Amino acid sequence: MNDPHSYRQPGSRLPPRDQLIMGIHAVREILLHAPERLLRVYSNEPQKQGRKSQLLELCEKQGIPIIPTSADALTKMTGSDSHQSVAAHVKGRSFLDVSGFLKRIEGQERSFVLMADQIFDPQNFGTLIRSAECLGADAIAWSKNRGSDITPVVAKSSCGASELLSLIRISNLAEAVGQFQDGGFDAVAALLEKDSKNAFSFDFSPRTLLIVGSEGEGIQPLIRKRADRSIFIPMKGKIESLNVAQAAGLLMGLYQKQFQ
User: Fold this and answer.
1) What would the pLDDT profile of 37-77 be if each residue is shown by its tens digit?
2) Are 70 and 52 members of one domain?
3) Which CATH number covers residue 76?
4) Are residues 85 and 102 in the same domain?
5) For 136, what's the count of Cα atoms within 13 Å in the CB-facing half-sphere?
6) How many domains does the chain have?
7) Fewer CB atoms inside 10 Å of the end CB: C or N, the chain?
8) This prediction's pTM
């Protein structure tokens, strides 16, 4: 097989995994908000019942082909057994670079971008994307070399937000931070350091690049140095920290509250 990310059934070639989404919620969100991107749906649901029934009926009304596919085939296609009996082939997305994004928002006073550094867990990455889309971020940026990429698991965890939010997929995050700063962004790193400011009294800039890292790997030292400021969330309970998706969601909410 030439493409290691594709799964072959007799007489057909299925799309690469970076063009597959899986799970009821992920497929439903694309169907509702960007139906033109859905090419076909794969399902092993012979009896229409519950949410799956409604989803397939909506697909049929939109004229989207439904391909009967075994559960084993869905697992091989998506690389996961949490597909909920449904996957979809979507039109491939184009990723932005920083300069292209800055050109897109030229003249826009306020803009919020989430930068994810070294987020290797696809479920955490998907949840970050979901939070960013729900809380009004303009884009999410991440390194294609140091962390999870967009996969069916990420798309499912994001509930389809990975197909709706602007995506900036880049090679060098440290250089990208500088590009954002040149574009008028305040680069804010989520770090627990002596100079970090309390998130609840933090004065966000209208254009903010929020940089978050995983609990294990954290933010790379070079990116820490390039950040303009750092921010932390004070903990009051017995558990010492939030996971990255929870923390980022709270910080994005504080930004939105300041500028609402």
Assistant:
1) 889 999 887 555 555 678 888 888 888 998 888 889 899 88
2) yes
3) 3.30.1330.30
4) no
5) 13
6) 2
7) C
8) 0.80
